[in-house]
Amino acid sequence: MGRRPGLSVRAKLALSYAAVAVLVGGLLLAVVWVFLLRYVPDGPLTTPRGFIPNRGDLERAFVPRARLAMIFLLVGSLVGGWWLAGRMLAPLDRITRATRLAARGALDHRIALPGRQDELRELADSFDTMLARLEAHVAEQRRFAANASHELRTPLATMQAMIEVARTDPDRDVDALLTRLHEINARAIELTESLLLLSRAEQAAFVPEPVDLSLLAEEALEELLPLAERRGLQVAAGGDPAPTLGSPALLVQLASNLVLNAIVHNVPGGTVQVSTRRAGEVVELVVENTGPVVADDLVARLVEPFQRGSERVRAEQRGDHAGVGLGLAIVRTITRAHRGRLRIRARDGGGLVVRVELPTADVAAARALPARVD
Length: 374
What we know:
- The protein has 10 helices and 9 strands.
- It has helices at about 10-35, 55-105, 120-170, 175-205, 215-230, 250-265, 295-300, 310-320, 325-335, 360-365; strands at about 45, 50, 210, 235-240, 245, 270-280, 280-290, 340-345, 350-360.
- A 5-stranded mixed beta sheet has the order 4-6-7-9-8.
């Protein structure tokens, strides 16, 4: 927005310093007059020892020098105030340059203000922290956009190639072609719906309602039980009621993604255990599954969008529901939208233990959900 030009902060501070200095000097002179000179007689004073200056003599000797001292005080305070203000505002110049660079897209620049901690350095450190988070967020969004474009382009390119081959093949099997095109199209639709769900969860655009995580977990298990039985997995569920506030649609998607992930990334004859409980001010949903050994460095990357693993590739080859690589990313986003915490650790002997912690219904109500989480 346009603003009319005005005095700089440095000039305002310098004038303020000068005004304070002149005011203090004037007060000192007033004190000298009120408490000293006014008690000196104004008439001629003589003593046996000789001449004694009276009030008029003292004023004629003192006032010109006091006026000169006030002029020097004014000039010195302006010069000193200008210099001191420049020293004090130097960190703001660095912060301003950093904000301008950030406005042009240079998020990798840091202020890195040296010196001991004070208000300006606290501001600079907070700005550096914000820049670091923005840079990481933008990088994550760019990776997400690139991965999403690749994932969406793959089925479209595959369908285009199949159609081109079928057009030039006189012996084409139309039924097989249509079946394969239907599968690829269904995968593209699933990916698009997952992207929309992820966007909705990131915006936290929902009205919180009372929900019970234990009931949502049971609903997810009933829906995915045929898939678990087809793979020969043993499914166990239990726990206590886990009341919270949130979006029933998003939370049932969270539970479904966790159970589906535990089923798909498992081994034949393995197990899936789902439990809920209340612990203090949080309710927990824990999904534990057997499976291949997961390295610790890979665990931290499982919540990244489109994270692929060997189990997912093998599932695609078997024709099972392999997902689109957004399952745990959606779980993390939904958890954050509900002011919760997602914990993932590798299970001893293979597999994962995924724990979702959400605030209880009374705590969530006190925090006035929903609130967007970036």
